[in-house]
Design goal:
The chain has about 350 residues and is an alpha/beta fold. Helix content is about 30%, strand content about 20%. Helix 4 crosses helix 5 and helix 8 crosses helix 9.
């Protein structure tokens, strides 16, 4: 990936060196975010993405006319079942895939016309982040930092600071990544993304597969970034409690279509008032998709994955909502080779 030597736009967030100390355990991070001024950080406008899988297979619509807007400084969550289009949308925003129709802008920069400007403003963490596995966390972070123009000394200090916040001891920084757990590797991936001070941080299921302690460490760090950095975060997740905890607003993507959007509290109140269901995100998800977070639809390669039947209407207070299935089909599994993280 080529790195431009042009300076970043004026909207670059405060450097990580200014990050204040975390509050004592159990105390919330400060709520004031002066940079949250309503500026449009990310605009996704009627975006569609299809995959052509060969002459004898139908075209798969992975993203179907999706529109949404993120404001500067907010954490925006996207919920969806496996194969619902979440990762495809993240890859489109990160310029790893091309649009079939529609437009995407990052702080006013069109991702097709101003691709290099966009790349200077974003960073991405995926569920299967790629590294140089023979190298240590320190070496991987220093390599990434130098690509973005940070000096070796500055990168080393900030790498140690961020990794310490994520619970990785200094004594582990010289060990090869291949000897570390998946939880440790994911923390290093998040540290690598934050090290470059992105204005738009794309987190694609960052806590999937982590042990409970590592998951809490990562969630607390995301809250800290939200409270202390001028960084807008687009987060995809399967964890409804995580979405409720971290997201200012969220939407549900089902079979490639955005079916509902709002704050967690708004959606919970709506499902209780309109559907008579318990005011939980589980009820919200089941009401607007009619299926579980674990149900698959169809993968990006067009492999036949039999969808699970929609649940029957609720018959007791213990059941969740009646299915309201959108009328499209689609989506992913194995990601294209180009969609992997650059080490």
């Amino acid at each position: 990936m080529a790195i431009s030597s042009e300076p970043r736009p004026a909207i670059t967030p405060p450097p990580i060196v200014d990050l204040p100390a975390a509050p004592p355990s159990g105390q919330p991070m400060p709520a004031a975010r002066p940079w949250a001024d309503g500026t449009t950080a990310l605009l996704i406008d009627h975006v569609t993405k299809r995959f052509s899988l060969g002459r004898k297979k139908p075209t798969v619509t992975a993203i179907d006319d999706v529109s949404l807007r993120l404001e500067r400084g907010e954490v925006y969550g996207i919920l969806g079942a496996n194969g619902g289009g979440k990762s495809t949308l993240i890859r489109l925003v990160s310029t790893l895939l091309t649009l079939d129709s529609g437009r995407v802008e990052v702080f006013g920069h069109d991702i097709e016309r101003d691709e290099m400007a966009v790349k200077r403003l974003i960073n991405r963490v995926s569920v299967d982040a790629a590294f140089f596995k023979k190298l240590s966390p320190h070496e991987n972070l220093l390599y990434a930092a130098r690509l973005y123009g940070l000096s070796a000394g500055e990168a080393r200090r900030e790498a140690e600071r961020i990794l310490a916040r994520l619970g990785i001891a200094k004594s582990r920084l010289g060990s090869p990544l291949e000897q570390m757990s998946r939880g440790m590797q994911q923390k290093v991936a998040i540290a690598r993304a934050i090290l470059t001070s992105p204005t738009l941080l794309l987190l694609d299921e960052p806590t999937t597969g982590l042990d409970p302690r590592s998951k809490l460490d990562v969630q607390a760090f995301i809250e800290e970034i939200k409270a202390t950095h001028d960084t807008t975060i687009l987060l995809t997740t399967h964890d409804l409690a995580e979405a409720d905890r971290l997201c200012d607003r969220l939407s549900i993507l089902d079979r490639g279509r955005l079916v509902v959007e709002g704050t967690p509290d708004e959606l919970k109140q709506r499902v209780a008032a309109e559907r008579g269901q318990p005011p939980t995100l589980d009820s919200v998800f089941m009401t607007w998709t009619g299926r579980s977070l674990d149900d698959d639809v169809e993968d990006e390669e067009g492999n036949a994955v039999q969808p699970q039947p929609a649940p029957q209407p609720a018959v007791s207070a213990d059941t969740t909502a009646t299915a309201l299935s959108p009328d499209t089909a689609s989506v992913p599994p194995s990601r294209p080779a180009a969609a992997r993280d650059d080490p």
